[in-house]
């Protein structure tokens, strides 16, 4: 028995057959139930876990159709249009689903009909029924009003005027019904009877292409999965070629025998269709996930889906049949590293127009970076036009400037004479500067104080190493905070 | 004496053996004059390994400094793993700068190819992330050519490096590691070296704050920062200014086993190295440079005086009192000044 807290009282949220046999009911207070039967076992409700379980079941149902939608807290919609023949017809399919759920320990009701409304009613009020096209009215007519999926208030007011079954509502004139009970009632009725289309919104976008293989003998080894991936990719290639497209994102779904589903996705920076390359990407991904994938008793269904596609440009190869394309090599290299180590494993610097050194270059993941122009031209660079004497910039920049201690400067606005950085004392031999870099006023919010300016110095210490320091703020009035010194970069 | 000569012969024979195994021409080793003629004849054979003519002159990257090239046996080998060490983490700037200078030299031949820089998260946090703007200004490496890879763990960084080293699409692969991790042992460097050899692309292994360890890399250079020379202006060196980047390079390991320390200066305009002679003080360097440059560029910086060439400087030393003005300093002295100017010299 499961309890939940409703308006300050513990009530029964759900209960099993044995509890029902004790004449306990849903919505009954736990205190009452305990008074009736002190030995009952009560568990606190966990809606999050219920949701996760339902999503896991929905994942598992992906094996029957890509269009799976979650309905409320305890239902799943499967749009099996065009899928039933793969499982030997509607009856056989429903039987198989029910059997498999039963074997996994679930008590499931199923209904199959031409409209979602009718199937919903069939599942909840009949348990295991297949409604042929046109029989919806006959199915619904004897059922109570709750079979129509309408709000409880509407149902109560309908019952108060004597309309107690769906059939009575269907027989009643439409116009007064619409006027009195709103358009939703008639909409639900029409949808259930197939007069209006109802769209079931799947929880996952439908992959444009997918291939799968049911296995008589479950597989467990990573090598076997990889081999299967390349087999499936061969089948996929034909479809991709026919469409003139390549895959930009791929997902591998592994359905474990006991119902758990693993979903492994890889992205590519360029459209791809070669089975060997797809296999190598999944090889890296599987190697990275080796600890996280629990094969258990093996996978009995493996599906490879193309999640997104892009136009594939054919390249002219040379007579040896090889296409020498460095960019493609690098894209594949970056994809493999990305597959194994995550999105940010390969970074590309992008030059941004900004005064602030740390903003002037940002790094973006390789897949999001603009394509490299070959060869890099001098004229159309994104960088600002180079002056004859570009400002000196360090070869390494610290991600965040590190504070340093400066005991004394020769003159207030001058460079330090020595400084302490990372607990070591450095003596300044020579200094150049300052180069003043002010904050960017256009990025400042109205009403905000102006950020202090930075005076950058190039420093050479007594051992010949060169650093880039800056002083934030000015030694002006006593009212302002004392300026602080930071280490920002290292020169060659 | 005879014993030592025999021992020397043995040593050279052994070295030649090693050189053959490693795939380099043994003749670069200074063979004793009394070497067997059969051996010298054999030394002409080019050793071919993995379909690569290792000893061809094209296999070396010439640094442009003759002494360094000779000490390395023809230059830095291109298709190999090369180790560049920094003794302390604070040398990271110099080590990175030297590696990038070499990369810039490589890029002169392989225009437009990208460069991959792999580092562990640790080194990028400790020593700073490479700054694309600075690289563009100093080494002419465009930001579009750069690819960075930040690996959370050393094993991942090594994996990326191994995958990258076998590709020919990169002009160079730079792997940066801090300290002396146990994983980066002889086997790991050997794998990197073998991949670099078969791809024919250089892999630069930067080891910050690392001690010398057994390695498969044929070359190990130890780099630290050197005080920079002053900036050059028309009026001569500008006192107190910080000029071009300078490095002190020690050869820690090379096939020729010739020791050497070099102070190199990187010319960011020409993208070339210049050597600063050892033992020369910075001041003397500053004095020497303008004269050298004037000799190299015969165009006069200052217009030639109208009255012809400058008079020769006065000979002899001033003893009694200082000269009013040296003849080389400017115009001819006036008529009144001249007797006064000349008289002390006569007295001297």
Automatic annotation (TrEMBL), chain A:
<dbReference type="InterPro" id="IPR045443">
    <property type="entry name" value="DUF6504"/>
</dbReference>
<comment type="similarity">
    <text>Belongs to the DNA polymerase type-Y family.</text>
</comment>
<feature type="domain" description="DUF6504">
    <location>
        <begin position="403"/>
        <end position="489"/>
    </location>
</feature>
<protein>
    <submittedName>
        <fullName>DNA polymerase Y family protein</fullName>
    </submittedName>
</protein>
<feature type="domain" description="UmuC">
    <location>
        <begin position="7"/>
        <end position="123"/>
    </location>
</feature>
<dbReference type="Pfam" id="PF00817">
    <property type="entry name" value="IMS"/>
</dbReference>
<dbReference type="InterPro" id="IPR001126">
    <property type="entry name" value="UmuC"/>
</dbReference>
<dbReference type="InterPro" id="IPR043502">
    <property type="entry name" value="DNA/RNA_pol_sf"/>
</dbReference>
<keyword id="KW-0227">DNA damage</keyword>
<dbReference type="InterPro" id="IPR050356">
    <property type="entry name" value="SulA_CellDiv_inhibitor"/>
</dbReference>
<dbReference type="Pfam" id="PF20114">
    <property type="entry name" value="DUF6504"/>
</dbReference>
<dbReference type="InterPro" id="IPR043128">
    <property type="entry name" value="Rev_trsase/Diguanyl_cyclase"/>
</dbReference>
<dbReference type="GO" id="GO:0006281">
    <property type="term" value="P:DNA repair"/>
</dbReference>
From TrEMBL, chain B:
<protein>
    <recommendedName>
        <fullName>Protein ImuA</fullName>
    </recommendedName>
</protein>
<dbReference type="InterPro" id="IPR027417">
    <property type="entry name" value="P-loop_NTPase"/>
</dbReference>
<feature type="compositionally biased region" description="Low complexity">
    <location>
        <begin position="296"/>
        <end position="314"/>
    </location>
</feature>
<feature type="region of interest" description="Disordered">
    <location>
        <begin position="267"/>
        <end position="348"/>
    </location>
</feature>
<feature type="compositionally biased region" description="Basic and acidic residues">
    <location>
        <begin position="268"/>
        <end position="295"/>
    </location>
</feature>
<feature type="compositionally biased region" description="Basic residues">
    <location>
        <begin position="338"/>
        <end position="348"/>
    </location>
</feature>
<dbReference type="InterPro" id="IPR017026">
    <property type="entry name" value="ImuA"/>
</dbReference>
């Amino acid at each position: 028995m499961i309890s939940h807290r409703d308006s300050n009282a513990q009530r029964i949220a759900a209960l099993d057959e044995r509890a029902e046999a004790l004449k306990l009911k849903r919505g009954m207070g736990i205190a009452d139930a305990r008074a009736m039967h002190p030995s009952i076992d009560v568990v606190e409700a966990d809606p999050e876990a219920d949701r996760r379980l339902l999503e896991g079941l929905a994942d598992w149902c992906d094996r029957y159709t890509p269009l799976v939608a979650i309905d409320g807290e305890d239902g799943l919609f499967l749009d099996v249009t065009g899928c039933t023949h793969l499982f030997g017809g509607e009856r056989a399919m429903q039987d198989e689903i029910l059997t498999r759920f039963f074997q996994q320990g679930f008590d499931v009701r199923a209904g199959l009909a031409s409209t979602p409304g009718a199937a919903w009613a069939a599942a909840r009020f009949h348990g295991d029924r297949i409604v042929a096209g046109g029989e919806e009215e006959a199915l619904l007519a004897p059922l109570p009003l709750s079979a129509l999926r309408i709000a409880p208030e509407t149902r109560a007011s309908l019952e108060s005027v004597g309309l107690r079954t769906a059939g009575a509502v269907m027989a009643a004139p439409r116009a007064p019904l619409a006027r009195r009970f709103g358009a939703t009632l008639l909409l639900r009725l029409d949808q259930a009877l197939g007069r209006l289309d109802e769209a079931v919104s799947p929880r996952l976008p439908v992959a444009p292409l997918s291939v799968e293989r049911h296995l008589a003998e479950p597989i467990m080894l990573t090598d076997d999965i990889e081999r299967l991936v390349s087999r499936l990719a061969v089948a996929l290639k034909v479809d991709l070629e026919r469409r003139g497209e390549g895959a930009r994102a791929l997902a591998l779904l592994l359905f474990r025998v006991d119902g758990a589903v693993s979903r492994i996705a890889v992205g590519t920076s360029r459209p791809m269709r070669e089975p060997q390359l797809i296999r190598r990407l999944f090889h890296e991904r599987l190697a990275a996930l080796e600890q996280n994938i629990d094969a258990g008793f093996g996978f009995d269904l493996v599906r490879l889906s193309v999640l997104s596609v892009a136009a594939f440009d054919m390249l002219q190869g040379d007579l040896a049949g090889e296409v020498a394309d460095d960019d493609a090599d690098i894209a594949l290299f970056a994809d493999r590293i990305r597959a194994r180590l995550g999105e940010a494993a390969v970074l590309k610097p992008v030059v941004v127009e900004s005064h602030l050194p740390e903003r002037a270059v940002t790094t973006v993941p390789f897949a999001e970076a603009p394509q490299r122009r070959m060869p890099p031209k001098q004229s159309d660079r994104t960088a600002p036009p180079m002056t004859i004497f570009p400002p000196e910039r360090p070869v390494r920049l610290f991600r965040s400037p590190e504070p340093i201690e400066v005991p004394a400067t020769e003159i207030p606005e001058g460079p330090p004479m020595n400084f302490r950085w990372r607990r070591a004392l450095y003596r300044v031999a020579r200094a150049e500067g300052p180069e003043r870099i002010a904050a960017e006023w256009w990025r400042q919010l109205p009403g905000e104080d102006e950020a202090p300016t930075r005076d950058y110095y190039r420093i050479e210490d007594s051992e010949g190493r060169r650093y880039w320091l800056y002083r934030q703020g000015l030694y002006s009035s006593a009212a302002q905070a004392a300026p602080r010194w930071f280490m920002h970069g290292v020169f060659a | 004496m005879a014993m030592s000569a025999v021992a020397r012969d043995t040593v050279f024979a052994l070295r030649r053996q090693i050189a053959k195994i490693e795939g380099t021409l043994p003749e670069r080793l200074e063979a004793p004059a009394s070497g067997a003629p059969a051996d010298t004849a054999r030394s002409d054979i080019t050793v071919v390994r993995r379909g690569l003519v290792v000893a061809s002159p094209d296999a070396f990257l010439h640094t442009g400094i003759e002494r360094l090239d000779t000490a390395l046996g023809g230059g830095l080998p291109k298709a190999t793993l090369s180790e560049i060490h920094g003794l302390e983490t604070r040398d990271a700037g110099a080590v990175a700068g030297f590696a990038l200078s070499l990369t810039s030299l490589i890029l002169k031949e392989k225009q437009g190819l990208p460069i991959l820089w792999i580092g562990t998260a640790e080194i990028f946090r400790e020593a700073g992330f490479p700054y694309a703007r600075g690289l563009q200004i100093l080494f002419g490496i465009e930001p579009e050519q750069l690819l960075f890879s930040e690996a959370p763990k050393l094993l991942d960084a090594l994996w990326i490096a191994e995958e990258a080293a076998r590709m020919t699409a990169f002009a160079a692969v730079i792997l940066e590691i801090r300290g002396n991790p146990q994983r980066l042992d002889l086997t790991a460097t050997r794998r990197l070296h073998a991949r670099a050899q078969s791809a024919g692309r250089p892999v630069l292994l930067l080891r910050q704050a690392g001690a010398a360890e057994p390695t498969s890399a044929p070359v190990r250079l130890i780099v630290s920062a050197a005080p920079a020379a002053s900036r050059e202006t028309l009026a001569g060196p500008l006192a107190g200014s910080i000029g071009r980047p300078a490095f002190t390079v020690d050869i820690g390991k090379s096939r020729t086993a010739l020791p050497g320390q070099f102070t190199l200066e990187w010319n960011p305009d020409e993208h070339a190295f210049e050597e600063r002679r050892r033992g020369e003080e910075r001041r003397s360097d500053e004095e020497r440079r303008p004269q050298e440059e004037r000799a190299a560029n015969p165009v006069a910086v200052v217009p030639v005086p109208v009255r012809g060439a400058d008079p020769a400087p006065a000979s002899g030393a001033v003893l009694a009192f200082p000269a009013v003005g040296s003849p080389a300093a400017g115009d001819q002295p006036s008529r009144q000044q001249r007797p006064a100017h000349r008289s002390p010299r006569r007295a001297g």
